[in-house]
Amino acid sequence: MDAERLRPLLEGERPYASIYFEDSHDTEDAAAQLELRWRGLHHELTEQGADTAVIDEMRRAVAELPAPVGQSGRAVIADATGVLLNEHLIRPTPTVVRVSPLPYLVPMVEHGYDSPAYLLVEADHRGAELTVYRHGRVHAETVDGAGYPVHKAAGAENAGYKDPQPRSEEAARKNIRTIAVRVTELIDDQTTGPVFVVGEVQARHDLTAELPDRVADRVVALTVGARDSGYDPDEIRDRIDAELLTRRLAHIDAATRRFSAEVDRPSAVAVEGLGPVCSALNHGAVETLIVGEIGAATVVTDAGFTVVAAGPDALSEYGAEPAHTVRADEALPTGAVAVDAAVVRTDERISPADGVAALLRYPVASGPDAP
Fold this sequence. Notes:
Layout lengths: L2 H4 L9 E7 L7 H18 L4 H13 L8 E7 L2 E8 L6 E5 L5 H6 L6 E6 L3 E8 L2 E8 L20 H26 L4 E4 L2 H10 L2 H4 L2 E4 L10 H30 L7 E3 L1 H9 L3 E6 L6 E4 L6 E2 L2 H5 L7 E4 H11 L3 E4 L10 E5 L11
Helix pairs in contact: 2-3, 5-6, 9-11
């Protein structure tokens, strides 16, 4: 999962309350079932010492988010001031309640909708509707081409006028170039990811041909509808979700294959186990954190939760005083997000030592936590 999407959670005021639960709406008594689940969540939050005002805010968040269609999970994360995240999950999840100094992110990594920034272009030879989706924020604008007309007038060839076809074709090319310029500006300004393009085949082809290679390489053509007659938003959403899921699974697959290839090499850019992963995090060298079955393992941190180690002695060797003992499945993912690393949840294809591994930006010299 993209670190940028989760980074705002690290800026909260401790303690954090993290809850995950099933939020399916595929039965007639779904609302009653949700109320029963909330009673259990409320009780557990209270038992773990969550502030009453925070629990009330979480209850409102649970009630206010529109019900999903069919089976779903839910994630709600709050800090001492209120709710920071309130989202549906891809599938139902076991109930988890944590009140701790750090947010619990692993279920979000595994089951959350990973929605990277992307650009949707609804184009024809006259103009385009451009919509940037970026981590919950939406920016929409219209590009109206200045080149008109783009269609040859009916009957013009028999009216004794000069053939308008060359002028019409040039107008269409001019409009496409205008769209391409604006698309490129949006990509360069906002570091958007995929560019989903919908429209008739020739318009999609012409637009892609006008884009610089760095932008054209991001284009994903969606064969839905037409700009004149409108597009089915649900169909577009389904196509985009399918593509993003495919990319997510491909990223996980690539991470596991790269780990398997690198972990046993000298000067490898892959490490496993609590000690080596903590060392890599402290050096800011982690590119992708791979989370497996960490269980209830703990690590120690300094007072500011900025240095993490497998034990007090290792932490002291960084010049830091041990101040907190926290769960590794909370500290390592938040540490990865803090250094702008991606976080993925592994499956049975690999079983790293201590349930955790990391792909590195560069090899890390042996440090206090190294084996």
